[in-house]
Amino acid sequence: MPQKLGSLLLGIGLTAVMNLTAQASPACVKDPKPLALKEDFVNWTISAAPGSECIQGLRWSYMRIDEVIVLKPPTKGKLVFVGYGFRYLADPGSRDADNFVLLITGKNRHDPGKTVLDVAVKPATTVVSELRH
Predict the structure, then answer these.
(1) pLDDT at residue 44 above 70?
(2) CA triplet 99, 103, 106: central angle to 5 degrees?
(3) Is this prediction's pTM over 0.85?
(4) 11 pLDDT higher than 80
(5) Class for the domain spanning 40-123
(6) Residue 77 CB neighbour total at 10 angstroms
(7) Cβ atoms within 10 A of the Cβ of 86, count?
(8) Spatial CA neighbour of 100 closest among 43, 51, 40, 58
(9) Helix, strand or coil for residue 6?
(10) What are the residue ranges spanned by the domains of the chain?
(11) Could you tell me the pLDDT band of residue 3, with boundaries at 50, 70 and 90?
(12) What are the residues whose beta carbons fall under 8 Å from the beta carbon of 101, sequence distance 6 or more?
C-alpha cells in the first residue's frame, strides 16, 4: 500500500511539473548595439520597473572579454556581474532614473581593444488605458 501511495504522489508531482510553463523575462535592453572593442563608446538604455531586474550579456560570439571594470556604479540600483554579462537590480523603493558606466577590454576576433559602455536606466512606464462610454 505505501508503495502505491508513493507512486501516486510521484505521478501527481510529475504531472504538476510538466504543466508548468517557462517564463522568460522581457528584454530590458532593446536592440543593444554590439561592442566593437575598438576604443569605442556605446550607449545602451535599460527599462526597469522598481524592484525588477535586468540580465544582459556583453559578449558577442566573435569576441573574447578579458576584463570588465565599473567606471561609475549605479546610484539607485545594484550591479552584479554574471559570467560575461551583468544583472542590474532596480531599487524597489525608487522610480528615479539611474546610470552606470563600464569599461570592457578584450579581443574582437584577433584585435585587442576596449569599449566604454554607458548604460542609462529609465523607469519602466506602464500604459494605462481608460475606457470611456
Answers:
(1) yes
(2) 145
(3) no
(4) no
(5) mainly beta
(6) 24
(7) 20
(8) 43
(9) helix
(10) 40-123
(11) low
(12) 70, 71, 72, 116, 117, 118, 119
